[in-house]
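Homework-ish question, so no full write-ups if that breaks the rules, but can someone show me the predicted structure for this set?
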Amino acid sequence: MNTGEINKATEDRSGKRRATSNGLMKSWLALREHPLTIVGLAIVSAFAVVGILAPLVIPYPEDIGSSVHLEQSLQQPNQEHPFGTDDMGRDILSRVAYGGRFSLSAGLLVVLLSSILGTPLGAIAGYYGGKIDTAIMGIADLFMGTPHLVLALAIAAVLGPSHTNAAIALSIPWWPTYTRLVRGQALVIRSSGFVEAAKSMGASGKYIIFRHILPNCVQLIITQSTLQMGSAILGIASLGFIGMGAQPPTPEWGLMVSLGRAYVTSYWWYVTFPGLAIFIVVMGFNFIGDGLRDIFDLKLR
Amino acid sequence: MIQVKDLRKYFNVQIGILRKEVVRAVDGISFHIERGEVLGLVGESGSGKTTVGKCILRLEEPTSGEVFFNDISISGLDEKRLREMRRNMQMVFQDPSSSLDPRMKVRDAVAEPLRIHKQAKGKELEERVLSLLQSVGLGHEHLNRHPHMLSGGQRQRVVIARTLALNPKLLVLDEPTSALDVSVQAQILNLLRDLQKRLDISMLLISHDLSIIRHLGDRIAVMYSGKIVELADEERLFDNAMHPYTQALLSAIPTPEFGPKKERIVLRGEIPNPINPPHGCRFHPRCPHAMQRCAKEEPKLTNIDNEHYVACFLHSEKSQAYPNSPLCSITTSAA
Amino acid sequence: MKDALLSVRNLRVCFPTTYGLVAALDGVCLELEKEKILGLVGETGCGKTLTALSILRLLPPSARIVAGEIVLRKRNLLDLSESEIREIRGKEVSMVFQDPTSYLDPVFTVGEVMIEVLESRQKIGRREAIEASIEMLTKLRLPNPERILRLYPHELSGGMKQRVMIAIALLCHPELLIADEPTTALDVTIQAQILELIRDIVKELRTSVLLITHNLGIVAENCEEAAIMYAGTVVEHGEVRDVLEKPGHPYTRGLLSATPKLFQKKETLEVIPGSIPSLIDPPSGCKFHPRCSYAIGKCKRERPSPVGLEHGHYVSCFRIV
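A: Not a homework solution, just the prediction itself:
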């Protein structure tokens, strides 16, 4: 065996090990060490699947709208209605299951809008620094200084109460979170060796931001988004609760909790099940988000 | 081919709330590098050697002084022309791990300079990338790997392949092997030597390790506290180092050779503070041969013997200052 | 046998990983004589730092010492309880690390650290502790030691910090000083100062030193004995001039040829082909065989045991030339 072959043989052996043990395999191994994340993933998937398939799966499809069965109103959880019925006699289980659509889609919209708005601003602020940075972060601070729900409420009021408007309203106070996060990362990456190398090759600022900074922020953004989903869903539910989100008869969870308030002392199921749904989904996202952070670290190692 | 004239780089640092100080990282350096030549720049921390490398590529803007590439002044170029000029000069940095974007595959990393300068696309790009990888001893199996799947030596090879993409005329290497193990270092040094000869590239090799500079360098410049204290051919420097600092450096470098008896010179004192360097000759507080004059005047870099330059009063009785250096006022006017 | 202060016999240390149990140290054997300086040399991942940490039982919690003995003057350190080994640390065996900045707590002054060590380990009063500290700092040629006692680590240069670390380690006059790459983070001229200092002090205090480094030059110039490590084992061991001038093991020979020399210019450096083996899937038999130009069939099947050459020079190889 000559030198070249020996070189290739021994280096490749270790390289191949590194290569095959990468990607899916490492993710799976990392996941195994984070059982809570698996739980979170299960919860979220369950709600998502149910939400998507809802009309085909729920026992009383007509109840998700404005059907009225007063003779069945406010029944305790029983065999025909495992979650009980509401004041209009509608099956709460069906409505909760269907309601997942609204919460999840709205949460997704909030997260998407705020990340799309906030991320590029953060990259620009972090990379260029100086006056641009001060200006962008100044505006971001303004938004961050205002209580989020209050601001969202004001915007929702201007836009008019609806589910989509609530989502848009919520994304506005939240873009600074992404900006701050991405700016921090951009500051770190800007002084890294490979950016210096790119500059020495003649790369422009735009190139560096698109090719080096943003791709290196993806993992951070995904983790943040996942955690943000939980808050977004809570926010949507809060706006719905106040009446600034989806309007009756939409089976949105926050709205259901709000309507159920009047009956909470004697008819506990009306408030409890939608409330539980909110709680469980938000927790699920938080589990995922926490685990993702660790898993991404391991993947890079 | 590369000409550096009286290069200075000063940094402003904030010390405390009200105090601003000036760090004189590079304080009046002049040298040149011929085509196809390897100039070794050796010094310890605070010598300014890394800053010199960066100033040549204008990764740091010099405070004053000029850098010429083939008689064109780099210092005056605007953004656009500078970017084009960057194709001629590339840099290999110290730590191969941080020089590569962890999210980029090897093929993208090596293709990056070609993409930035829109030199090739599609199939042609693929072929050039592969041939670059092969010239550094890697192969197509490495194309799709990420840096963390490569060993330190392989990463440094990828970095070298990347710098060769645009066929640069000058390569600046800043401690290219100090992060690597001995056996890997030897592979990379051999590779660099081979590439340098084959492609006739000029190199500025920056390191604190005189033994690797000896291995690759044709001429060597020794820096101390922002100034060049000795500049000579590799053989002359090792046979007859004249500056006391160079002598101390040679004595200090540990080497597993038992033959020639090294005179053990152990310097007292610390590396000078770049904010407040000593008056006169910067080396005088630690110099075993310091004289009264050394504390008051700064010795100029003068040609003592056939292109062997030294900045030291022990030797300066001989004539002829270093050409083009504005530090040499008296002798040129006499000539 | 020789006058051995420290004997490491067949030390095996494993780590559990997602791929199973990995042997980071696979049968390390070392002998350190009294008042001698032994250089432990190897490249990254060979296990030299782990060996040092094992002596003081400072291994990370996931590490498992699977086999072997570490005998310090007739006592097996691996048998000691946690409180017993704590007694030994800092008093009979001390350690100095590579980067003084991370090993000196920034919130304590030099004096506070040194006095605390003396008061707790030697049970002496404060005034005596201060005197002893000043004496030790003077031995380490630090100017103005009274002033240094009042300084914080960030007010000292790299070389001074390392001297302070060494001073702290030597305060209780230990019998064994372990120095793990003590000068790697320092400039060359400062490195020369510190190494000379270490040589002089250990002679004066009659301390033995285990000097860990990857630099053969440092071993050549500062150590009396040398041990070369590769992939978790010691492949060669003997007096410095024997090991470095007449190396018996192909790896030692390879390392020497790969080191660029200061006093001769060679055209091309001879390179050891291949790279350091992965610990997860180590080569069978002799760990170096895939890269060895002398390897024969036996090398793949069996692990070589140390073979004695001249006095005290041992090589683990079937093909000693």
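Now go work out the reasoning yourself. Hint: Chain A touches chain C at residues 3, 6-7, 9-11, 13-14, 17, 29 (CB under 8 Å).
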